[in-house]
Design a protein that fits this description.
Blueprint (H helix, E strand, L loop, with lengths): L3 H9 L11 H17 L3 H10 L4 H11 L3 H8 L5 H13 L3 H11 L2 H10 L1
Helix pairs in contact: 1-2, 2-3, 3-5, 4-5, 5-6, 6-7, 7-8
Length: 124
């Protein structure tokens, strides 16, 4: 069972609840709790957003978990929120290898790799 605040976040959606007014530690805790539940429900975009707002290590853990499982399109949902260029490019390359062109483009753009973006746009 999740806490009442995490439940509100899950029901209303991460982007529809203003958690900025919560104390930093409470905010982090409820967002991690909501993110973990959203992840279990398959609501990966929202889970990634919750982990990002919480500045949680769970964001990077989710990228690693789904990448290792070979679920690179799901890993991309989480990687999209990272600032780590190497990790963004790694997940982008795997998405490209699997034929997920648009996801690869998004990640290469976020990584600032214009050369790969142009290559994909011109050749694939």
């Amino acid at each position: 069972m999740v806490s009442p605040i995490a439940d509100i976040i899950i029901r209303k959606g991460v982007e529809h609840v203003d958690t900025a007014k919560l104390a930093p530690e409470l905010r982090r805790t409820v967002l991690e709790e909501a993110g973990t539940t959203l992840q279990k429900l398959g609501r990966h975009r929202e889970a990634a957003l919750a982990f990002t707002i919480a500045e949680s290590a769970k964001l990077r853990e989710a990228v690693a978990y789904y990448a290792q499982a070979g679920l690179f399109s799901v890993a991309a949902e989480y990687a999209r929120h990272l600032e780590d260029v190497a990790e963004l490019e790694r997940v982008a390359a795997e998405n490209l290898r699997l034929g997920n062109r648009e996801e690869a483009l998004r990640l290469y753009r976020k990584a600032g790799n214009g050369q790969m973006v142009r290559f994909i746009e011109e050749n694939l």
